[in-house]
Specification:
alpha+beta, 6 helices
Length: about 150
């Protein structure tokens, strides 16, 4: 197994959640947009990465949609202290719905539950809450296992 494959497995167990979906890409995107709004997320942008790559070269790839989710009060609370401003690089949070070379649809996003373990105070609370909202947003969209319980 290559070093890159091992690194990706480590990422999938920590910072990134990547789960299969029983839906098509279009169905998953549509349902995500509806459920995200119902959970209070703002949706500032969505991006068809497959189409963008096709316009900028002879790149062939399966479907990839990136949907950005934002929680202005949560994001502000998290990054208000200067010490946490580097987290702005992760905002707004993206959910990627993509098709693998074998035709499987998968949904990937940040693992807020894991990230919450690295922080204390308001940051931990905000990340934990974001994880719960993301789980609720993706209900019925992903075949999800709860692999990272809440930090104590």
């Amino acid at each position: 197994m290559s070093l890159g494959t091992l690194a990706m497995k480590a990422l999938r167990r920590s910072f990134i959640r990547d789960d299969p979906s029983p839906l098509s890409v279009d169905e998953a995107v549509e349902r995500l947009q509806v459920q995200a709004k119902a959970q209070g997320w703002r949706l500032p942008h969505s991006f068809d990465l497959q189409e963008f790559y096709a316009r900028h070269g002879p790149f062939e790839m399966k479907r990839v949609m990136v949907i950005y989710l934002c929680d202005p009060p949560g994001g502000y609370a998290l990054t208000r202290p200067d010490a946490f401003k580097p987290l702005l690089a992760l905002m707004p949070s993206s959910v990627c719905i993509y098709e693998t070379s074998r035709g499987e649809v998968r949904v990937t996003r940040l693992n807020y539950h894991f990230m919450a373990r690295m922080f204390g105070g308001k940051a931990r609370h905000t990340l934990r809450e974001s994880g719960e909202r993301m789980d609720a947003t993706l209900a019925g969209i992903v075949t999800q296992r709860r692999c990272h319980p809440h930090p104590a």
